[in-house]
Input
Amino acid sequence: MKTRILLVEDDPTIVEALSELLASEGYAVDTAATQADALNRALAGGVHASTGALAATTPYQLVLLDVTLAEGNGLAVCGALKQAVPELPVIFLTASSDEFSTVTGLELGADDYIAKPFRPRELLARIALAIRRAQPTRHVLTLGPLTIDTDRAHVERAGREIALSALEYRLLLLFAVNAGKLVTRDQIRDALWDDAGTYIEENTLTVYIKRLRDKIEDDPAHPAIITTVRGLGYKAIG
Output
C-alpha cells in the first residue's frame, strides 16, 4: 500500500510540480487548496455534527502544508490537525523571510519546515524522515535469517552477533523496514545522509553495500538477503 500524502497548496504551478515529484517517488498524493478542504480531507469524518469535535483518524501518513492560503490559514490547519491526530507529521512550506510563521508553526506542533524555493531531493529526504519518525517503533526486526534488536542496535544470525559499523547498521535497518520493496540508490543515499549527517557518494555507497554483504551473507558473491535490481537499486528478502 502506498504512503499517502496530503498537499495543501493554492498555487497551481507548485501543486502540479510537487504532485509529479511525489508521485515519481511512489507516494499517493491528494491536494487541497483551502483550509476547509484540507481539514475535510485530512480528518476522516471531518467534524462530528453532534459534538463539533474533530475526528481522530486520518487516511494520510503526512501533510505538506503551505502557510499562506487564499481561503483560510495554514497555521490554523496545523493546529487543528495536531489537536485531532498528534502523531500525524506536518511539514510547512514557508517563504524564506517568514520567520514568524516558521516559529509559530513549530510551536503548534509542526514536525519540520522547508523554505521556498526548495531543493527537491532535500524535500523528499525530510518527508521520508518525518514519516519514519512517526511510525511505531518495533523493538525486534527480522530480515531472512537475521534478527535486529533496535533497542540495542544488536544484530544476530543463528545466535551469533554480527558486528556492524554505524553506517552499516543504518543501511541494514533501512533494508529491514523496507523488506520486499525496491529501494533505489538515491533513497539509500538520502536516508544515510539524513541519519548520519554526511552525504554518501555513489562509489562510497557501493563499498558499504559490499561490506554489509560480506558480514551478513552466506555467499557475498551470490547474495540472498540483499539482492541487486539491475539499473534500479536493491531489494531485501521479504
Q: What stands out?
A: Confidence is low (pLDDT under 50) at residues 45-55.
